[in-house]
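User: We ran a pulldown and think these components assemble together. Before we commit to crystallization trials, I'd like a predicted model of the whole complex to look at. Sequences follow.
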Amino acid sequence: MARSTALAPAPERRAAATAAAGARPPTDRATRVVGAVFRGHSALIYLFLYVPIALVILFSFNAGDFAGELRGLSLRWYGEAFGDRFVMKALQTSLIVAFASATLATAFGTIAALALQRVPPALRAVYDGLTYIAIVIPGIVIGIASLVFFVNAFDWFNPLVGSLWPGSLGEAPVLNLGIPTVIGAHVLFTMAIVIVLVRARLAGMDRTLVEASYDLFATPWRTFIQVTLPQLAPAMLAGYLLSFVFSFDEYVIASFVKGQDTTLPILVFSQIHRPPVTPKINAIGTVILTISLSALFIVQLIYRRQTRQARALAEAAAAAEA
Amino acid sequence: MAGQSQERTGQTDVEFRSVTKRFGAVVAVDDVDLRIRAGSFYSLLGPSGCGKTTSLRMIAGFEDPTAGEIFIGGEPVLGVPPYRRQVNTVFQHYALFPHMDVGRNVGYGLRQRRVPREEQERRVQEALDLVRLSAYGRRRVWELSGGQQQRVALARALINHPTVLLLDEPLGALDLKLRKEMQLELKALQHQVGITFVYVTHDQEEAITMSDRIAVMRDGRIQQEGTPTELYDEPANRFVASFLGQSNFFEGELLEDGELAGVRTARGLILWGRRPGSREPLAAGSRATVAIRPERISLAGDPPADAAVDRETATLPGRVLQGTYLGDQSEYQIETDALGPLMVRSINSEGLPAAHFGAGAAVRVAWRARSSLVLGI
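Assistant: Here's a predicted model for the assembly, 699 residues in total across the polymer chains.
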């Protein structure tokens, strides 16, 4: 029962893998040429993908007046961007939208995923299909559909409330397009992302953990709080962050249902059409990119940690069986 | 924890009354009656799909019987959810909570029952001491080896002082050496804490080593119930005889039933054998099996000219097909004209040269009629 038994095989296996990778079979000239061509091709693909983004970031540090030519480096345009009242207002709107839609999507998506566990399998397949459709459906369709829905609903709702509203309470509330409608439209597809992630986690979850909890005197509710929810937490957090990222930089849907409010992507897009285009746009773009990448980085960390734990458990079991 | 066994000995801790469990068309447990004495180490033994795990899950409360009644500590438990039953389970793959450290895993049951914090801490440490993991309270469960995880699972269950501890093939995931160690450890632990253990396994050796009593199951029914010695020496039928240990089986027609029974085998030889105490009566003329354990047969180098069989002994000439030397013992495949192939195991005790007979050697095969059993098919 030595403690090392659990950990011993891992370095060995890694060593074996490295040895296998290092010992390439003998190659002839033609194979080397083909290999070089493929490597060159991969390099070009990634240049194609990332050079434009790198340039956006580089030009955000431009000291010059125009986005087109680089004249020395400075943080001047970041200052300009953060000093701009409209930019800050749009950033604030975008953050509100992203936080709210991520929160709502995570809450309702998790509940939906849990409920789907209890739906008969045939019906569940239908719901799964609908969930994936909500993710891949073009933004423009969601945008138009949401706009039509909101406008019709408000046209019906506002006069009704207006006519029933007691005068003593002052002005009747009037529903309009704005931040709440952007949040609502975003939750449409971000919730689907959360459902997919949480469902995957539920499927991978060891059912006997729940039984073990019952066995140790925990009621179903306490089991849910103490076992099921902590098991789902990584998927929920990942879903939250992905929803946040998608919602934060979403343009198409927001442009339909934003009403009088302006999100950051919409502001950027409108400024590009109003020359002169200054490196301030690049600075804003870089800020959006940084926020999105940070969130994705955290998601990556969560999943790495999760797989590492799963692998450690599996290795202990394998070592015991070997 | 110790001392409880003395007070409760003689009582029945778990009782099945005509319990049946169906899953759709499949009958997993078929009209089973069972009484498990308090403080005993009781094994449910059988091949996979025999209903042993389903029986265990019904005691735990994860499944409800389709028909029949179950009592734990004298109380009917039908409809009582698992979290209100005084039983705890050690799961096959341990089912430790990966998001809690070892100490929090072990203390889980106490927290649900809102035991005061100081008492929790004390009992968690006691339980960890009991399974010799005293210094592991702060470890993450996925940092432990399989054997250590197994002992955490044990501590997590035992800490609650259950009336009955259920163990679902808990040693199945361990390697052979560790499994042997844990068998002795489990048995010692059971003795120490005095809790009734209900142990599910498909490993006959494991069951024999640890159990006070064993129920051998097949196809949802109990084939035989008794002490390991009873099951090995007095198997009620051919299945039990073949599942616990090895046997030579010779089928034939029963000549007469009684304390000693005669069977005419396929090649015409009449073999006499003892009928087990728990026998189901057999009609003369029906099919029967003579079962002889390989270690109850003796080998000698002086083959007789002919087979001689009576109510006392059987002596046959034979030829060694294969002799396998196993160190402490040797295993032989013997071909006999009178009965066909036969397996013999002889202990290489002092005075006997090891690997006595090579392939091709002519030998005398002999056993006492009372060492063989006549069983139903």
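The CA atoms of residues 42 and 48 of chain A lie 10 Å apart. That may be worth checking against your pulldown data before setting up trials.

User: Thanks, that helps.
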